[in-house]
Amino acid sequence: SNIHALGDVDQVIVTVPSMLEPADSLAALHGLLGKRVAVVMQQDIFDAFSTGMGDPTSIKMLMMMLRDRAMQSGVEPPRQLLLFGDASYENRNLQGNGDFIVGYYSNESLSTTTSYISDDYFTLTAEGQGEAPADKLQFGVGRVPASTLDDAWAFVNKFRTYMGFDEGEGSAASCVDPNGGSSYGPWRNRILFVSDDQDGNGVDGHKYMKYSENHSGQIRANHTSYDVTKIYADAYIQTNTPGGERYEGAAAEIARRVDEGALIVNYVGHGGERGWAHERILNLQTIQGWSNVTRLPLFMTATCELFRHDDSDVYSAGEAILFNPDGGGAALFTTTRTVYSNGNEQINAAFFSTALDKSDPTRCIGDIYASTKNDENVTADVNSRNFSLMGDPGMRLAYPEHRVFVTEVPDTLRSLDLVTIRGFVGTVQGDTLHDFSGVVVPTVFDKQATVTTLDNDDAFGPYSYEVFQNVLHKGLATVDQGAFEFSFIVPKDINYAYGPGRVSLYAVDGTSDAHGFSESFVIGGNNEDGLDDDQEPEVTLYINDTLFEAGDIVHEDPWLYAKVFDESGINTSGNGIGHDLKAVLDDDEANPFVLNQYFISDLDTYQSGTIRFPLQDLEDGTHELSLKVWDVANNSASAFTHFVVASSLEVALVEVLAYPNPATDHVTFRASTNQACRPSNVTLEVFDMRGNKVHETKYVGEPLGFVDDGMTWDLKPSSGGSVLPGVYVFRVRWENEFGQAAQYADQLVVVRP
Q1: What's the chain's Rg over C-alpha atoms?
Q2: What is the pLDDT of residue 33?
Q3: Percent of the chain whose pLDDT exceeds 70
Q4: Separation of CA 318 from chain center
């Protein structure tokens, strides 16, 4: 193609023949968003600017040409460059039509701390710029280092979901369902900070936690609407295993929190190609198990070589995060080589000084990347070059679009007070959005709790930090023409000392969303004339959904699901000793699941609600589960159930119940299986007593529960007409995505009136 004939574009995608189809698909998605994107073949660039030879400067010259033309025409030059294809450290004699896209490498190749690969080089297009590490980026650049078509399509499909192209029909309330298919949800209002501990090496001290505190403090000061969650490894119990020291509690919490989703996940500490920290608080197994495809964060990782993508012998943790087709991350701002903590802190601080600025509606993560690298406080230039953007620089972060304002809240919230809070959804300027009708998710927090770490390595002593973590109420309220209100009773178990509380709010109407907060009230004290309640709550415990019955078979990653009711409301504060919402698996009282943050009230009521919590990697066999809940007046109730785990790698089809049976005009087949939320191919066949097949139907999809009612038959043979009265045999064959199958057969009686 004629590279020199390219017109004005917003973004350039450079790719190779093997990646052309997914690259074109990605460009088409950008086009639907109103962007002008050119997909350019690498060999064409080599032919135009380097006589066909593989030279990284040729890509730089292409961008310089487009910049010069734009400036002459008085239009904006391209703001983003995406390299859609992997790189290789074996960079010599690279073929333009091969599998790799050329990378720029430093002259130094023997030192692990001063050698690097950096796509920043392609952006150094200003007059006088060459290859100096101190040169400033002129636009955003990123790479999707897919080495297979499966990886490439996984990324494109995740981009499609993240940008909202897969939003289906449904109520606004479905957008806040953790099992729902919407990319909207309170995850967009969360920022997760993960910090390594202070290893007993006499060097680290508390610096990683201090760095995280600095960045979270920036958010508290400048972007207070966002909820900050903290997982600092040293706040969890460290155990010794044959494989070394481990933080099992921290690792499990990271796995859950990422699966629940966050706008940004920030990690500070040691790391490498296989994950985070020498205690393995994040590893490949966890990453590959994430299923948060509708809740994808941007990962910012201030750690060593998490994404060494140019070594084909290593599949790095960063690659697993980006190319997990079911979840992981939307993009990563991460490292490809060894880095130093002081330089990392410069980059990390610069990132948070710009990442949450959404004043420009066209601003993308490539712009954030360039602004971060160009920050005047980033002086560790070589260290900076070791950070790369892995993902599409033209992707816009999923910021909540509008604001939520609180107009009425009591000055003081006391224990056992009945509280009503009112507000509205509006523009940034404060004008009510009267056409916004949906739901708001309010979360009311008690005062900030002080958490003190355990000094597990007996190194520099404990470290204390503060976080809003004790939830007094989490609910769901209707937003009607922009306005909303909700009520709840403050639990008896609050911290009675007076201090500022917080209400965080996320609203969605199915096509747009909003966030806001208020900390203009005080929590403390006790209402002596509060409610008189001695009735225990009502609780029903299921696995995955309400079709579950005790003893049913499930797969190894089921969800605890409970429905709870109490006239006064449910206590989720976590302040009272022994008063947590708590689940215990297999009588392991020493390791309960604390579920305070997993309860959410039903729409427009504080008296009923649900608990959803993921149980992961359960062993095959029978398990017992108990759940204890407390109401706000400290009355408790418990529920119990049991279930059987059969690994989803092998299909278990326990029973298929035909009902009604006898049938007169239709019949439904209820299947009990361990394949909930797993891709399945199901065949239903019906035979008469002579062995003749009278009906066959195939079903393809993912059953939402362990009990599925999706198969029906209208008692008409596949050839047409109606079947005669009599006895028939039905057979169901259930095949999973791995080709393994099970079948079940039984009799069906057909009668005619």
Answers
A1: 28
A2: 94
A3: 96
A4: 15
Q: What is the mean predicted confidence (pLDDT) over 319-323?
A: 97
Q: What is the pLDDT of residue 179?
A: 53
Burial class of residue 243 in the structure, from the number of CB atoms within 10 Å of its CB (0-12 exposed, 13-18 middle, 19+ buried): exposed
Q: CA-CA distance, 537 to 531, in Å (whole number)?
A: 15
Maximal C-alpha separation, the chain: 91
Residue 243, SS3 per DSSP: coil
DSSP 188: G
pLDDT at 80: 97
Task: Name the residue with higher pLDDT: 101 or 647.
Answer: 101
CATH number 3.40.50.880 is the correct assignment for the domain at 402-450+469-525: no
- 598: left (phi > 0), else alpha (psi -120 to 50), else beta? alpha
Tokens matching residue 358: 């959404």
Cβ count near 220 (within 10 Å): 16
Amino acid at 455: D
Distance CA 285, CA 263 (A): 22
Comparing CA positions, the residue from 310, 338, 265 lying closest to residue 119 is: 310
Buried b (16+ CB within 10 A) or exposed e, 570-580: bbbbbbeeebb
Nearest to 443 by CA among 501, 530, 522: 501
CATH 2.60.40.1930, the chain: domain bounds: 402-450+469-525
Task: Annotate 414-476 with DSSP letters as a single string.
Answer: EET-EEEEEEEEE-TTS-B-TT--EEEEEEEE-SPEEEE---TTSSS---EEEE---EEEE-B
The one-letter code for the residue type at 554 is V
Instruction: Look at residue 655 in the predicted model and tell me its pLDDT.
Output: 82
Q: What is the dihedral of CA 155, 161, 163, 164, to 10 degrees?
A: 170
Residue 125 has pLDDT above 90, yes or no: yes
Of the pLDDT bands very low, low, confident and very high (cuts 50, 70, 90), residue 536 is very high
The pLDDT value given to residue 459: 83
Is the pLDDT at 454 greater than 70? The verdict is: yes
CATH 3.40.50.1460 spans which residues of the chain?
A: 3-390
Taken in order 674, 676, 682, 687, the sign of the CA dihedral is positive
Output DSSP code: residue 20.
H
CATH fold for domain 653-750: Immunoglobulin-like (2.60.40)
**CA quadruple 638, 642, 647, 650: dihedral, nearest 10:** -140
pLDDT at 313 over 90: no
Task: Choose the weakest-confidence range: 90-99, 153-162, 181-190.
Answer: 90-99
What is residue 649's predicted lDDT score, i.e. its pLDDT? 59
Mean pLDDT of 179-207: 85
Residue pair 48/58 in contact (Cβ under 8 Å)? The answer is yes
Tokens linked to 221? 């000061």
Taking the C-alpha atoms of residue 220 and residue 223, their distance in angstroms, rounded to an integer, is 6
> pTM score, two decimals?
0.86
Domain 538-645 has CATH 3.30.565.10: no
Instruction: Give which of 333, 312, 316 is closest to 324, Cα–Cα.
Output: 316
How far from the centroid of its chain's Cα atoms is residue 99's Cα?
30
* Residues 533 and 631 sit within 8 Å (Cβ to Cβ): yes
CATH class (in words) of the domain with range 3-390: alpha beta
Positions of CATH 2.60.40.650 in the chain: 538-645
